[in-house]
């Protein structure tokens, strides 16, 4: 058989490349929201409001009272790799803020209608800008793409509409808005527990009351009580641990041996970023296994601060997976602390039943 003629190789158009890259970072509305929450927290906000329509596919809006964005920066805000958080590659090892690659807003602008209203302390008014494909865009045909002055309070409001409007395959993948809203509530709930000093609210468009609402001055146990339930909040133990050799500190609020649920609630923060770790989850579940009835699972909120030089945050743009040095040693220390905390509660209980 004659060999087929080779097909010529061509470069993909830039907007196609950007759309593909965006779709890899943002797979569901909750991923866009995570970036927006982290940006709001990075901006020093103490109040954060989230509004959601159709599981975030129709509308995701987040309003903060942080430092705002300088008007002069609006033209490049949504370009790829524009950031106020990282200047040199070496900074990656000491970065304290959530974002650092300047990819989130750019990605969102490629797969949704994005608008930003922002005001700094110094500015006498707010500015509103619309974006498409990484650039300033006009809100309606025939109108200018220049940011427009409007009235507004200091802080930033980001509005994301019609997510995946130009990625039909992705849009079709969503089964139900309520499933996406549940993921959004889980995420907002995690940050609302973790970010003390910040008020949070999350509301579904059209609902009269918020699904999540915590005031800025609520303590961690108040936050857990409001977002989860009082059953778990009244069975919490807390501990702190640190170790210089492995360069880490941790603070935990975990359920004691009186509490047992059908599945584990795990809220893990590494350097103030919500992350998943199957390894940590499994180890903690094993630690609990000797304290809980068969099939029982714990509630765990664990915040780890690891020396940034030991954390490899640059694994993937999503930053969902984080790796750090001496993972095993650090997990062992945390699990030892959990065991100690759980046995303390156990002894005090048997003490009481004896007396
Ligand atoms: P990164 O967070 O990695 O820098 P983003 O695309 O998420 O990249 O944001 C780009 C830049 O826009 C940030 O560096 C920040 O300067 C600015 N920014 C984004 N959201 C906000 C916000 N809510 N308040 C103030 N500045 C913001
Ligand atoms: Mg960011």
From TrEMBL:
Membrane-crossing segments per the record: none
Boundaries of every DNA mismatch repair protein S5 domain copy: 224-343
Compartment annotation: Nucleus
Family in the record: Belongs to the DNA mismatch repair MutL/HexB family.
Designated name of the protein: DNA mismatch repair protein MutL
Organism annotation: Aaosphaeria arxii CBS 175.79
Species classification: Eukaryota, Fungi, Dikarya, Ascomycota, Pezizomycotina
Portion of the full sequence shown: 23 to 377 of 728
């Amino acid at each position: 058989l004659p060999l087929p003629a080779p097909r010529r190789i061509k470069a993909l158009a830039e907007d196609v490349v950007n759309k593909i890259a965006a779709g890899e970072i943002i797979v569901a509305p909750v991923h866009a929201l995570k970036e927006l929450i982290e940006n709001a927290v990075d901006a020093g906000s103490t109040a954060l409001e989230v509004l959601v329509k159709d599981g975030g596919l129709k509308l995701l809006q987040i309003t903060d009272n942080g430092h705002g964005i300088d008007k002069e920066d609006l033209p490049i805000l949504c370009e790829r790799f524009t950031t106020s958080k990282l200047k040199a590659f070496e900074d990656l090892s000491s970065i304290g803020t959530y974002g650092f690659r300047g990819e989130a807003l750019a990605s969102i602008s490629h797969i949704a209608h994005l608008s930003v209203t922002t005001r700094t302390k110094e500015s006498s008014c707010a500015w509103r800008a619309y974006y498409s494909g990484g650039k300033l865009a006009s809100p309606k045909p025939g109108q200018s793409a220049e940011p427009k002055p409007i009235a507004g309070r200091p802080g930033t409001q980001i509005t994301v509409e019609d997510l995946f409007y130009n990625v039909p395959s992705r849009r079709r993948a969503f089964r139900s808005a309520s499933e996406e809203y549940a993921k959004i509530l889980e995420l907002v709930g995690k940050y609302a527990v973790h970010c003390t000093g910040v008020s949070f609210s999350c509301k579904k468009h059209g609902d009269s009351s918020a699904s999540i609402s915590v005031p800025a001055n609520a303590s961690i146990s108040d936050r857990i009580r409001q977002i989860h339930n009082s059953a778990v909040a009244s069975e919490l133990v807390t501990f702190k641990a640190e170790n210089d050799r492995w360069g880490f500190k941790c603070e935990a609020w975990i359920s004691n041996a009186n509490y047992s649920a059908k599945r584990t609630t795990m809220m893990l923060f590494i350097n103030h970023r919500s992350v998943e770790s199957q390894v940590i989850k499994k180890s903690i579940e094993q630690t609990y296994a000797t304290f809980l009835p068969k099939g029982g699972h714990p509630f765990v909120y664990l915040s780890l601060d690891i020396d940034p030089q030991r954390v490899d945050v640059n694994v993937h743009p999503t930053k969902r997976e984080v790796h750090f040095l001496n993972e095993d040693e650090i997990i062992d220390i945390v699990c030892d602390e959990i065991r100690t905390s759980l046995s303390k509660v156990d002894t005090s209980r048997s003490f009481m039943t004896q007396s």
